[in-house]
Write a structure and sequence with these properties.
This protein has 14 helices and 7 strands. It has about 325 residues and is α/β, with parallel strands linked by helices. It has a 7-stranded parallel beta sheet, with helices on both faces. The N and C termini lie far apart (about 45 Å).
């Protein structure tokens, strides 16, 4: 299939073509990479914009349940929802379970929803390297909302903020010292903190946790991209579908304000620049795995291991050999 036909099918909402295109952009083969870049360029015009929502949280907080219930609420309002779920890869074997689709059984059967799990591979920050390109493909396919679920490892998952228009942090109540559950770095990235499992015996604990985080958020420095009252903490119950409508109303209000004040456009421009710079960095790192750089790295590494050179001196030598100052 040529690029023009593949782009036409994606714009027409063909799910099979979309799934194959995401597989194409995730491939590391040089010929596939060239095809993927041509496809992304073909889909840039006419551009479509979806609301990109990043979702992070600690393992066991109920991210999949929240996404399913929230996604069904959105499709019930006539919106098309894509879910890009990033699954952790094994550091030993490199494999991933990719079980998110089975955990969202009802949403996966919804004709207005599309769920795609992807392996994180060696990428840090909670997302896969090509998640941004997968988001662009989903936008081109006509989805109104793209939900990006991170791997769920905790404080380091701030990269998703560079992919999304809204960043949701999902927390569970009664986890001991709630304010130690997630550190300041990821809290400063969040637009909404949603305390899940606010139902049954945990409801009172959830409300206390919301109060704790509301107080903590008031102590953070005001961000220019926020109107008064944001970021804020809210209680939700993904199990009983409570609080989701209020959270969605708050999300829409925040996005509307950011569009009216120009923050939406500026944020997307800065994100595009960030990913350009990241692509250059990744390309430079990849060059180290090819000859002659690979051999130079191995030779210097052996000298470091024998104690002939310090790691710092060897690194400086390697950079000089590459033609760059240390």
């Amino acid at each position: 299939m040529d690029t023009t036909e593949r782009a036409r099918l994606i714009r027409a909402g063909d799910r099979r073509a979309l799934a194959r295109a995401i597989t194409l952009v995730e491939s590391a083969r040089p010929d596939h990479r060239a095809e993927a870049l041509a496809l992304i360029d073909a889909l840039r015009t006419p551009a479509r914009e979806a609301l990109r929502i990043g979702l992070s949280g600690t393992p066991g907080v109920g991210k999949s349940t929240f996404i399913e219930t929230f996604g069904l609420m959105l499709t019930g309002q006539g919106l098309k929802v894509a879910v890009l779920a990033v699954d952790p890869s094994s550091a030993r074997s490199g494999g991933s379970i990719l079980g998110d689709k089975t955990r969202m059984e009802r949403l996966s059967r919804d004709p207005d929803a599309f769920i795609r799990p992807s392996p994180s591979q060696s990428q840090l920050g909670g997302v896969a390297r090509r998640t941004r390109e997968a988001v662009a493909l989903c936008e081109a396919a006509g989805f109104d909302v793209v939900l990006i679920e991170t791997v769920g490892v905790g404080q380091s998952e701030t990269v998703v903020a560079e992919l999304s228009d809204l960043f949701l942090l999902l927390l569970a109540p009664a986890g001991g010292d709630e304010l130690q559950g997630v550190k300041r770095g990821i809290m400063e990235m969040a637009d909404l903190i949603l305390v899940n499992k606010a139902d049954g015996e945990l409801k009172a604990a959830a409300l206390r946790t919301v109060a704790d985080y509301s107080g903590a958020l008031h102590l953070l420095r005001r961000r220019p991209q926020d109107p008064a009252g944001f970021p804020r903490a809210l209680p939700v119950s993904a199990l009983e579908a409570e609080g989701l409508a209020q959270a969605w109303t708050d999300m829409q209000g925040l996005i509307r304000w950011r569009k009216e004040t120009g923050h939406w456009t500026r944020a997307r421009a800065l994100q595009a620049r960030h990913w350009f710079e990241e692509e250059v960095r990744q390309g430079l790192l990849a060059a180290l795995s090819r000859e002659p750089q690979k051999g130079l790295m191995a030779s210097l590494g052996e000298r470091v291991a024998r104690g002939d050179l310090s790691p710092e001196t060897a690194a400086a030598d390697m950079l000089r050999l590459l033609g760059r100052p240390a």
